[in-house]
Amino acid sequence: MAILKRLFGYLGPYWKVLTATALLLLLRTGLNLVPPLIQRAIVDDVIEAGDLAHLMRLILALVGVYAILHLTDFGDNVLRHTLGQRFILDLRVRIYNHLQRLSLSFFESTSTGEIMSRVTNDVNALESFVTHGVPLTVVDLMRLIAASIVLLTLNWRLALVVLIPLPLMAIGLRIFNERSRPIYRVVRDRLGDINARLQDNLAGIRVIQAFEQEENELRVFRGVSEEYYYQSVRAIRTWSTFFPALHFLTAVGGALVLGFGARSVVDGVITLGTLVAFLAYIASFYEPLRRLTEIDNTFQQAIAAGERIFEVLDEESEIQNAPDAIDLTETRGEVQFEDVHFRYGKGDEVLHDIDFHIAPGEVVALVGPSGAGKTSIANLLCRFYDPGHGRILLDGHDLRDLDLKSLRQHIAVVLQDTFLFNTTVRENICYGKPDASEEEMVTAAKAANAHEFIAEMPKGYDTEIGERGVRLSGGQKQRLALARAIITNPRILILDEATSSVDAEAEFLIQQALEKVMKGRTALVIAHRLSTIRSADKIIALEDGHIREVGDHHELIARGGLYSQLYQRQLELTELE
């Protein structure tokens, strides 16, 4: 019930539409009570009395009521379904907005497909809750109450007969709720598994085809899909057992009323017209009762979907702004790591006793074997994570005391695994500064040595580059990413192995661009190819999360330690090539 209460709370902003819908439903409820009374008058005052004088007037009145009912149905349907779509739109945007503010740790522990399933499938599942569940519950309750009053007024003895099936229906509904709710949750979870597997496979389609694993992946996908099928069939069997039984009970109730009513007419206790009207009102009693139980099925599905949605909305970001966060309008770019320790989640510590200083405008390179902690240091400087112990300072301010948005406005990152959006060159370069002028964009592209190849493309800066920049080479992607970083004019530039996955020519062009771009900026360079960072002001050699040595290229080579060994090893590999 807590989930339902929360879902109802989300309908608050739409109270005007809900009020208009409620008024239409109230009108429709009242109008539905009129036709049986007109039918009784036709039977008793026209047919039984043999008087046709009032027949046409009664027929016109009946047609008029049906016409007004049609108009109210039209207005009700338009309002309800428009409300449903608006609710889904606003909820989906709310979830997306929340997702963008969650820490990277959430996305590392939750698959993209699972997240997509909650934003799309689970949100869509609530459409029936809004358009049918909530409004029809109100109208059916009103119809039920009104029909009960009329039935008791017509003949209280027959009204008691109508109530005979209700205890069995109530017991059946309770059993159905207990069984269906966990089933619907499992169904939604299995649908999330399908989305997760599909997204993963589509993203890795090249690897699948390269290793000829199509049949194996098909088998796995079929298995996940079959599990969803089995759970869906389980849900179908559950409600297919309950609802026919419910309809049977209401049919039995109608048969009992007909039996007792026929005897009452024969005995002269009630008129034939009263029995006709009573039978018509039984439909107004049992129909909303049946639909309320069917709507309960909608509520169970909404609860299952709502649980999954609220799990996302209740997820709190590990990285939060301090209540009195400092807005960093300008920065000199001085960085200080003081006794920093860090671990991902509950895993082993990956950084130990990290202490180093970067002066404003200084280029510092991080080197070391894979897993040494280089990227973790870059992640901490961007404040994607917070250290478990120690602190990181920017211009003397602890990063945790700075406004997160203002901090990241002064930092730009170029990653080894370049991500580009499936849009134009222009939109990718200007991503961090959407209002950039044409001149700023071209200047950034030229600084990144990207303008020349962009100009040769079919539509220049308006060329679509495909998903993840599939129409570009590795070197072209990296230069676009560098242009994207340059256009924001960052004070601090982080380069995470930006040249490790490109050929020699592309590396030369990127390296030329980097030398121009890093002038006057504080730069943290994570280097795989050590030949690219010989001119760095300072080189920090890392191993197993510890700083092993610090110095410039010549000092560290002369020292003969970790850096010298790594450098010598790369020279030997280069000679073998």
Would you give an account of this structure?
This protein has helices spanning 2-9, 15-32, 34-48, 55-100, 104-109, 112-154, 156-162, 166-203, 205-210, 214-266, 272-313, 374-381, 404-409, 425-429, 438-447, 451-455, 474-486, 504-518, 553-559, 562-576; strands spanning 335-343, 349-358, 363-367, 389-394, 397-398, 411-414, 492-496, 522-526, 538-543, 546-551. The protein has 577 residues and is an alpha/beta fold. It folds into 3 domains: 2-313, ABC transporter type 1, transmembrane domain (ABC transporter transmembrane region fold, Up-down Bundle); 334-410 and 492-577, P-loop containing nucleotide triphosphate hydrolases (Rossmann fold, 3-Layer(aba) Sandwich); 420-489, 3-Layer(aba) Sandwich (Rossmann fold), CATH 3.40.50. Strand 4 (389-394) and strand 5 (397-398) form a beta hairpin. Helix 4 packs antiparallel against helix 6. The chain is elongated.
